[in-house]
C-alpha cells in the first residue's frame, strides 16, 4: 500500500498541483459556460472543489465567474461599448455571472 495522500488532498495542499488544477477547473468551466448557462454552475463547482477550505472555494467560484464575465466581454468585441446603456440586461448578466458560480461552490461544502 502506498503512503501517498489521495489526489484531492494533494491538489488542495501542494502549490504546483493546486495551481494546475485550479487553472484547468476554471478553463473547463468557462468553456462549458460558453456553450450553456449551466456551465457557470459547473465552473463554480469545479473551481471550489480544488480549494482547501469552503471560504476559499467561494472566493475561487467568484473568481471563475469574473473570468467568465471577462471572456464574455471580450467575445462581444466592439459592441462592449454599448453595454453600459443596456442596464436591465447587464444586471441579469452580471448577476448570473457571479451568482451561478456561487451556487456551484456549494459543492465544496458537500465534498470534504
Tell me briefly what this model is:
This protein has 112 residues and is mainly alpha-helical. The protein has helices spanning 7-13, 15-33, 38-49, 54-75, 87-104, 106-110.
Descriptive account of the structure:
With about 110 residues, the protein is mostly helical. It is built from 6 helices and no strands. Helix 1 packs across helix 2, helix 2 crosses helix 4 (about 55-75) and helix 3 (about 40-50) packs across helix 4 (about 55-75). The relative contact order is 0.16.
List keywords for this structure.
112 residues; mainly alpha; elongated
Please write out the topology.
Blueprint: H1 7-13, H2 15-33, H3 38-49, H4 54-75, H5 87-104, H6 106-110
Helix pairs in contact: 1-2, 2-3, 2-4, 3-4, 3-5, 4-5
Amino acid at each position: 500500500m502506498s503512503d501517498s495522500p489521495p489526489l484531492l488532498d494533494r491538489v488542495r495542499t501542494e502549490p504546483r498541483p493546486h495551481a494546475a488544477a485550479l487553472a484547468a477547473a476554471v478553463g473547463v468551466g468557462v468553456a462549458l459556460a460558453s456553450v450553456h448557462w449551466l456551465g457557470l454552475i459547473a465552473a463554480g463547482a469545479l473551481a471550489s472543489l480544488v480549494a482547501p477550505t469552503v471560504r476559499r472555494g467561494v472566493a475561487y467560484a467568484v473568481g471563475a465567474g469574473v473570468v467568465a464575465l471577462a471572456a464574455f466581454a471580450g467575445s462581444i468585441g466592439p459592441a462592449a461599448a454599448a453595454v453600459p446603456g443596456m442596464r436591465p440586461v447587464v444586471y441579469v448578466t452580471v448577476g448570473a455571472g457571479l451568482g451561478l458560480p456561487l451556487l456551484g461552490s456549494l459543492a465544496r461544502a458537500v465534498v470534504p
